[in-house]
Design goal:
Elements (H helix, E strand, L loop, with lengths): L1 H5 L3 H14 L6 H14 L3 H14 L4 H13 L3 H14 L5 H8 L3 H14 L4
Helix pairs in contact: 2-3, 3-4, 3-5, 4-5, 5-6, 5-8, 7-8
Protein backbone atom coordinates (compact mmCIF):
# COMPACT_ATOMS: atom_id res chain seq x y z
CA UNK A 1 0.00 0.00 0.00
CA UNK A 2 2.80 2.42 0.80
CA UNK A 3 4.63 1.61 -2.42
CA UNK A 4 1.37 1.90 -4.34
CA UNK A 5 0.83 5.38 -2.91
CA UNK A 6 4.32 6.62 -3.77
CA UNK A 7 3.84 5.02 -7.19
CA UNK A 8 0.71 7.06 -7.84
CA UNK A 9 -1.79 4.18 -7.73
CA UNK A 10 -4.42 5.97 -5.65
CA UNK A 11 -7.30 3.50 -5.50
CA UNK A 12 -5.10 0.44 -4.95
CA UNK A 13 -3.20 2.25 -2.18
CA UNK A 14 -6.46 3.07 -0.41
CA UNK A 15 -7.96 -0.40 -0.89
CA UNK A 16 -4.87 -2.29 0.19
CA UNK A 17 -4.22 0.06 3.12
CA UNK A 18 -7.76 -0.32 4.41
CA UNK A 19 -7.60 -4.10 3.92
CA UNK A 20 -4.30 -4.26 5.82
CA UNK A 21 -5.75 -2.32 8.74
CA UNK A 22 -8.84 -4.56 8.84
CA UNK A 23 -6.70 -7.71 8.80
CA UNK A 24 -4.16 -6.49 11.34
CA UNK A 25 -5.47 -3.49 13.30
CA UNK A 26 -2.72 -3.72 15.93
CA UNK A 27 0.15 -4.07 13.47
CA UNK A 28 3.12 -1.98 14.65
CA UNK A 29 3.61 -0.91 11.01
CA UNK A 30 0.05 0.39 10.61
CA UNK A 31 1.61 3.75 9.78
CA UNK A 32 2.63 2.40 6.36
CA UNK A 33 -0.99 1.46 5.58
CA UNK A 34 -2.16 4.89 6.73
CA UNK A 35 0.45 6.60 4.54
CA UNK A 36 -0.79 4.63 1.54
CA UNK A 37 -4.36 5.65 2.32
CA UNK A 38 -3.29 9.26 2.80
CA UNK A 39 -1.48 9.39 -0.54
CA UNK A 40 -4.39 7.77 -2.33
CA UNK A 41 -6.83 10.34 -1.01
CA UNK A 42 -4.36 13.13 -1.73
CA UNK A 43 -4.04 11.99 -5.33
CA UNK A 44 -7.82 11.96 -5.69
CA UNK A 45 -8.14 15.49 -4.26
CA UNK A 46 -9.83 14.26 -1.10
CA UNK A 47 -7.67 16.37 1.18
CA UNK A 48 -9.86 16.05 4.28
CA UNK A 49 -9.61 12.26 4.07
CA UNK A 50 -5.86 12.58 3.48
CA UNK A 51 -5.53 14.77 6.59
CA UNK A 52 -7.52 12.27 8.68
CA UNK A 53 -5.25 9.42 7.56
CA UNK A 54 -2.15 11.53 8.33
CA UNK A 55 -3.50 12.37 11.79
CA UNK A 56 -4.12 8.67 12.46
CA UNK A 57 -0.56 7.93 11.32
CA UNK A 58 0.75 10.59 13.70
CA UNK A 59 -1.17 9.02 16.59
CA UNK A 60 0.30 5.62 15.74
CA UNK A 61 3.90 6.87 15.46
CA UNK A 62 4.25 10.51 16.62
CA UNK A 63 7.97 10.79 15.90
CA UNK A 64 7.75 9.88 12.20
CA UNK A 65 8.34 13.07 10.20
CA UNK A 66 6.70 11.79 7.01
CA UNK A 67 3.30 11.62 8.74
CA UNK A 68 3.61 15.29 9.68
CA UNK A 69 4.73 16.08 6.12
CA UNK A 70 1.57 14.50 4.70
CA UNK A 71 -0.54 16.40 7.23
CA UNK A 72 1.14 19.70 6.32
CA UNK A 73 0.50 19.11 2.60
CA UNK A 74 -3.14 18.08 3.07
CA UNK A 75 -3.88 21.02 5.35
CA UNK A 76 -2.23 23.42 2.90
CA UNK A 77 -4.51 22.11 0.14
CA UNK A 78 -7.48 22.69 2.46
CA UNK A 79 -6.35 26.29 3.03
CA UNK A 80 -5.76 25.67 6.74
CA UNK A 81 -2.45 27.45 6.62
CA UNK A 82 -1.89 28.02 10.34
CA UNK A 83 -2.27 24.30 11.05
CA UNK A 84 -0.27 23.40 7.92
CA UNK A 85 2.61 25.60 9.10
CA UNK A 86 2.48 23.99 12.57
CA UNK A 87 2.72 20.53 10.99
CA UNK A 88 5.61 21.74 8.81
CA UNK A 89 7.43 23.06 11.87
CA UNK A 90 7.08 19.63 13.46
CA UNK A 91 8.63 18.04 10.36
CA UNK A 92 11.67 20.31 10.73
CA UNK A 93 11.93 19.57 14.45
CA UNK A 94 11.98 15.85 13.72
CA UNK A 95 14.12 16.05 10.57
CA UNK A 96 16.14 19.30 10.50
CA UNK A 97 17.58 18.67 7.01
CA UNK A 98 14.20 17.93 5.43
CA UNK A 99 13.70 18.94 1.80
CA UNK A 100 10.49 18.46 -0.20
CA UNK A 101 12.23 17.58 -3.43
CA UNK A 102 14.78 15.48 -1.57
CA UNK A 103 12.02 13.44 0.05
CA UNK A 104 10.22 12.81 -3.22
CA UNK A 105 13.38 11.97 -5.16
CA UNK A 106 14.76 9.68 -2.43
CA UNK A 107 11.51 7.67 -2.45
CA UNK A 108 11.12 7.67 -6.22
CA UNK A 109 7.76 9.37 -5.97
CA UNK A 110 5.63 9.18 -9.12
CA UNK A 111 5.47 12.54 -10.94
CA UNK A 112 1.66 12.56 -10.65
CA UNK A 113 2.11 12.79 -6.85
CA UNK A 114 5.46 14.57 -6.59
CA UNK A 115 4.47 17.83 -8.28
CA UNK A 116 1.31 18.56 -6.29
CA UNK A 117 2.85 17.25 -3.06
CA UNK A 118 5.98 19.42 -3.37
CA UNK A 119 3.83 22.45 -4.21
CA UNK A 120 1.67 21.92 -1.11
CA UNK A 121 4.72 21.28 1.09
CA UNK A 122 6.23 24.57 -0.08
CA UNK A 123 2.96 26.36 0.68
CA UNK A 124 3.04 24.95 4.21
CA UNK A 125 6.51 26.39 4.74
CA UNK A 126 8.62 23.30 4.17
CA UNK A 127 11.88 23.92 2.30
CA UNK A 128 12.18 22.83 -1.30
Amino acid sequence: MLILGWGGEAERAIDWGERGIRLSPLDPWITAALHGICMGHYLRGRYEDAAVAAQRAIRSKPGFSVSHMFLAAALAKLGQMEDAKAAAERVIQLQPNFSSTGQCSAIGCAPVLAGPLIEAMRASGLPE
